[in-house]
């Protein structure tokens, strides 16, 4: 398993290199001069030159890239153009918020998607199969933020079961955290659970026809064990790939759903950064996103290896 | 486990037909919704009752009324008018972003596919990098460079979605260039690029259309999202996303504001996705010519009514383990009928005895084995007969009791050991699992017994092999494991379904020897299903010959080989290759086993039989006491196996 992880890590190097070059080059692609952005029209010629020198903008681009990368690797992503806050600090404050939203919604998507997929696969063309199919079709057409608004209207405004807005950190109070994260996570997880349900259904239908399922039944193992252990383990192999992709989608979706619930996560940070063309912040956001995606992919590969012995390097 | 469909067999097909017409109706509705959308977008100014920007603060946040069909928003603007103008934005957005995506993606994809090499490598790595970042983040980054607004947002989405068109175009080129370079360009000497383009354009169209429908739906959702968070369409302009953004601020005061734009988005995206599905199915059908099975000829109705005849029952035998009487298995057909696959089958096996079930493929031998276990697939039903194992009729047992019987009293070894072992678990754990589940052994006791069993089936270094995964074992080794698992609970009946067919000839004999040894040791009865008469002769005590879903002959091995009584048995024996006898043209039985539903009404072998007479047009019973035969001329014909 360790070999697998090392192999996958090495395979990620080209991706990380390309992403870092792309991220770095935003500064150069920017239509306006970052110095102008920071100082506005107020600064004198001298101040402009000084800032230019201090930011190292007079160095050749390769030197600047290497310096930037060196600092980034050490966790120094520069300071915001606008409020001289350290980018890393700002990101680290918001990351747990977005991450807990993403992970809880992924959990919901997996539980709902797998359960619905299995139920549909066990009885093809039955009522539950049709419901799951229709649900999956709608689930992929409903915008997550609209679904979020609906949940707010019903469960927060009307029934008052959950708070309509805000986020409580897990460390402060697990109960409040769960209450604050439930509605946004459901809103976010809906379309992913639909995608997962479709995938589980088709994988499960295929696996249930396999000889080893019939053999396990012939051996007198209970239906429950045959379906949940023998069939599901194999059916999850293709599902894991979809799940990896879905977590990336959820991460992006979280940026929008946060706005529905006025949650101060990476999304709010990103929107502010875009409006102000706060390039270091955007760069930092991209790197954090890529970092998360890399971790998810790595985890996926490990799970894939556990589920599918043939994929393990021998 | 017998899964009887909850509805009657006649209900299923009509429901399927209703499903087909239902989906046609859905497509019409989806098409109408999209047509309405385009109409409203084109004529928004004429159709909408009010100016979408006209404010009326006195009449703000109103519920639907005759004056304002969908009410008013926080500034007293007419929601319906804003919704209609939102259609225009949606159409512009979808058109703009999709066009940009195609114009960027397709040429670059064609280019890198054609050039290959470094160009291809670098661009593909960039694409991978972009795809690995959440799409909305990519759009946000591009908007940070461009600034906000509808058209800028659509450029951002266009760039984002161009990656899928790029990969699609590249894939088509890569598939076509092989073809083209080998066939025409090199030979004719024409410009490779031009010919390639000529080949690519017709091939790229179908996947391009499919990808476009997918993209349009995704763009609409993304545009709404970007406008919702204020990076797309800017207020006061009306788009569905900005309307929802307004609604979000008033959820506690006037939740209805969220409903019209939400429904509009959902209906539009749903319509596009559904039409996309239909197009995708159509394109898919165009590519793969479906191998549709011919509908079975409906001449079976008469057969279905033949009641099990008392004469067909085999005489009771001492130490009987299994006794099957009058078994019939049917399948539901597309037009609601019940087609018999096995009819009126009776057999019995004693302790320590091996009964061979032989016949060509399609004769129903494997199905018989599965039917005894109650493991036929969902579409199949066992409609008649009894399956008495150790004195209990399995057909009358509830599902849970049958699960107890399986493994403990009857077990099965399948044809292909590489597919009958679960690829996800070690072979040892699959045996230990049975021991723990059926005999309640502890983990360590089950494992110790597992290693013993693996040793018993003749696998060297059993402790080590128990930890192997199925794909790490040879076929013969895997089959030994499957046999060990089947015997783990010491069943009184073992059903072996062509257990040597998938194996090398040299391994076959070893496995047969193993069966013999184990039978001597454990004393179980074996139902040995095979199409190979040489194997059957080697291992069986008695042989039942099956043809077209019924038994045609049953006899002791020696008697059967010395003097077959059914013309089909004789045909099988004659077609058997003998190592000593190398006369080239091996006689074969003309024709092939008719598919279920196309069986002749009388003797099912009559259309292939050399001895057919008029009386063979009637149903023929299985007759005899010690030897059984289903042939009206059995007594007059003198059949010999060898020529």
What's the gist of this structure?
The complex is a heterodimer of chains A (314) and B (643). With 314 residues, chain A is mostly helical. Helix content of chain A is 76%, strand content 0%.
Plain-language structure description:
The complex is a heterodimer of chains A (about 325) and B (about 650). Chain A has two domains: about 15-85, no CATH class; about 95-310, MetI-like (MetI-like fold). Chain A contains 14 helices and no strands. Chain A has helices at about 1-10, 15-25, 25-30, 35-40, 45-55, 60-75, 85-120, 125-140, 145-160, 175-210, 210-220, 225-260, 265-275, 280-305. With about 650 residues, chain B is of the alpha/beta class. Among the domains of chain B are: about 30-50 and about 75-280, Orthogonal Bundle (MetI-like fold), CATH 1.10.3720; about 555-640, no CATH class. Chain B is built from 21 helices and eleven strands. The longest helix of chain B is centred in the N-terminal third of the chain and has 39 residues, at about 150-190. Chain B is elongated. Chains A and B meet through helix 2, helix 9, helix 11, helix 12 and helix 13 of A and helix 1, helix 4, helix 5, helix 7 and helix 8 of B.
Helix and strand topology:
The complex is a heterodimer of chains A (314) and B (643).
Chain A: H1 2-11, H2 13-24, H3 26-29, H4 34-39, H5 45-54, H6 61-73, H7 87-122, H8 127-139, H9 144-158, H10 174-208, H11 211-218, H12 223-260, H13 266-276, H14 279-307
Helix pairs in contact in A: 1-14, 2-14, 7-8, 7-10, 7-12, 8-10, 9-10, 9-12, 10-12, 11-12, 12-13, 12-14, 13-14
Chain B: H1 11-42, H2 44-47, H3 79-115, H4 117-132, H5 135-146, H6 150-188, H7 192-228, H8 240-249, H9 259-287, H10 301-304, E1 320-332, E2 338-350, E3 354-358, H11 365-373, E4 380-389, E5 392-393, H12 399-408, E6 410-413, H13 417-420, H14 427-439, H15 443-456, H16 462-465, H17 475-487, E7 493-497, H18 505-522, E8 525-530, H19 533-539, E9 542-547, E10 550-556, H20 557-562, H21 567-574, E11 628-629
Parallel strand pairs in B: 3-8, 3-9, 6-7, 7-8
Antiparallel strand pairs in B: 1-2, 1-4, 4-5, 9-10, 10-11
Helix pairs in contact in B: 1-3, 1-9, 3-4, 3-6, 3-7, 5-6, 6-7, 7-8, 7-9, 8-9, 14-15, 14-17, 15-17
């Amino acid at each position: 398993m360790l070999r697998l992880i090392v192999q996958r890590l090495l395979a990620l190097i080209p991706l990380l290199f390309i992403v870092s070059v792309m991220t770095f080059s935003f500064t150069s692609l920017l239509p306006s001069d970052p110095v102008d952005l920071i100082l506005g029209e107020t600064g004198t010629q001298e101040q402009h030159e000084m800032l230019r020198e201090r930011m190292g903008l007079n160095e050749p681009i390769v030197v600047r890239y290497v310096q930037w990368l060196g600092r980034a690797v050490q966790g120094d992503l520069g300071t915001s153009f606008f409020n001289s806050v350290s980018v890393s600090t700002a990101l680290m404050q918001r990351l747990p918020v977005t991450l807990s939203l993403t992970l809880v919604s992924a959990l919901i998507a997996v539980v709902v998607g797998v359960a619905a997929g299995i139920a549909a696969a066990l009885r093809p063309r039955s009522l539950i199969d049709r419901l799951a199919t229709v649900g999956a079709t709608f689930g992929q057409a409903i915008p997550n933020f609209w679904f979020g608004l609906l949940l707010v209207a019903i469960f927060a405004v009307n029934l008052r079961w959950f708070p309509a807005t805000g986020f409580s950190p897990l460390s402060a109070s697990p109960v409040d955290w769960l209450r604050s994260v439930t509605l946004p996570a459901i809103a976010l997880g809906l379309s992913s659970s639909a995608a997962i349900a479709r995938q589980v259904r088709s994988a499960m239908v295929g696996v249930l026809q396999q000889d080893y399922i019939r053999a396990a039944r012939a051996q007198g193992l209970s239906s429950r064990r045959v379906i949940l252990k023998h069939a599901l383990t194999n059916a999850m192999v293709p599902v894991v790939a979809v799940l990896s992709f879905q977590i990336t989608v959820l991460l992006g979706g979280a940026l929008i759903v946060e706005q529905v619930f006025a949650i101060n996560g990476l999304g709010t940070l990103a929107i502010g950064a875009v409006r102000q063309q706060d390039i270091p912040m955007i760069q930092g956001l991209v790197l954090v996103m890529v970092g998360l995606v890399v971790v998810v992919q790595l985890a996926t590969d490990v799970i894939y290896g556990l589920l599918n012995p043939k994929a393990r390097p021998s | 486990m017998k899964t009887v469909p909850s509805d009657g067999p006649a209900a299923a097909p009509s429901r399927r037909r209703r499903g087909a017409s239902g989906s046609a109706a859905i497509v019409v509705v989806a098409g109408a919704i999209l047509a309405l959308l385009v109409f409203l977008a084109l004529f928004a100014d004429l159709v909408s009752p009010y100016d979408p920007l006209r404010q009326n603060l006195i009449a703000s946040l109103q519920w639907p009324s005759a004056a304002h069909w969908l009410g008013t928003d926080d500034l007293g603007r007419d929601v319906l008018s804003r919704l209609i103008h939102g259609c225009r934005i949606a159409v512009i957005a979808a058109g703009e972003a999709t066009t940009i995506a195609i114009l960027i993606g397709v040429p670059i994809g064609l280019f890198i596919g054609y050039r290959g090499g470094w160009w291809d490598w670098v661009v593909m790595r960039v694409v991978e990098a972009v795809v690995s970042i959440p799409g909305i983040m990519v759009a946000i980054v591009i908007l940070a460079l461009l600034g906000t607004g509808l058209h800028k947002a659509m450029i951002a989405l266009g760039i984002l979605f161009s990656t899928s068109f790029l990969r699609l175009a590249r894939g088509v080129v890569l598939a076509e260039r092989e073809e083209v370079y080998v066939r025409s360009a090199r030979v004719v000497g024409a410009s490779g690029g031009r010919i390639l383009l000529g080949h690519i354009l017709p091939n790229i169209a179908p996947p391009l259309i499919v990808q476009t429908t997918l993209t349009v739906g995704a763009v609409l959702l993304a545009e709404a999202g970007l406008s919702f968070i204020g990076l797309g369409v800017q207020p006061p302009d009306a788009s569905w996303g900005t309307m929802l953004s307004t609604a979000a601020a008033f959820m506690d005061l006037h939740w209805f504001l969220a409903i019209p734009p939400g429904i509009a988005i959902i209906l539009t995206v749903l319509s596009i996705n559904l039409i996309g599905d239909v197009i995708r199915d159509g394109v898919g059908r165009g590519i793969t010519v479906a191998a549709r099975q011919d509908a079975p000829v409906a001449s079976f109705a008469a057969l279905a009514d033949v009641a099990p005849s008392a004469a067909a029952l085999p005489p009771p035998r001492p130490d009987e383990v299994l006794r099957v009487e009058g078994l019939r298995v049917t399948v539901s057909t597309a037009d609601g009928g019940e087609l018999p696959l096995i009819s009126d089958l009776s057999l019995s096996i004693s302790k320590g005895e091996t009964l061979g079930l032989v016949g060509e493929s399609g004769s129903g031998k494997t199905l018989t084995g599965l039917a005894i276990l109650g493991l036929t697939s969902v579409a199949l039903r066992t409609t008649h007969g009894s399956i008495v194992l150790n004195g209990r009729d399995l057909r009358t047992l509830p599902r849970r009791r049958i699960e107890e019987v399986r493994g403990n009293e009857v077990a099965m070894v399948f044809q292909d050991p590489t597919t009958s072992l679960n690829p996800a678990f070690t072979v040892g754990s699959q045996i230990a699992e049975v021991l723990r589940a059926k005999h309640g052994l502890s983990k360590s006791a089950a494992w110790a017994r597992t290693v013993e069993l693996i040793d018993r089936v003749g696998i060297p270094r059993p402790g080590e092999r128990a930890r192997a995964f199925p794909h790490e074992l040879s076929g013969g080794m895997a089959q030994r494991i499957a046999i060990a698992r089947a015997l783990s609970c010491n069943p009184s009946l073992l059903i072996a379904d062509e257990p040597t067919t998938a194996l090398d000839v040299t391994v076959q004999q070893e496995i047969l020897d193993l069966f013999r040894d184990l039978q001597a040791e454990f004393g179980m009865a074996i139902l040995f299903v095979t199409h190979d008469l040489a194997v059957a002769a080697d291992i069986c005590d008695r042989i039942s010959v099956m043809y077209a879903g019924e038994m045609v002959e049953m006899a002791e091995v020696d008697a059967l080989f010395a003097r077959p009584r059914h013309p089909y048995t004789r045909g099988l024996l004659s077609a058997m290759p003998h190592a000593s006898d190398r006369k080239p043209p091996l006689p074969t039985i003309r024709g092939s086993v008719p598919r279920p539903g196309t069986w002749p009404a009388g003797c099912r072998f009559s259309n292939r039989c050399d001895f057919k007479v008029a009386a063979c047009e009637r149903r023929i019973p299985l007759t005899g006491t010690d030897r059984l035969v289903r042939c009206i001329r059995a007594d007059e014909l003198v059949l010999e196996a060898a020529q």
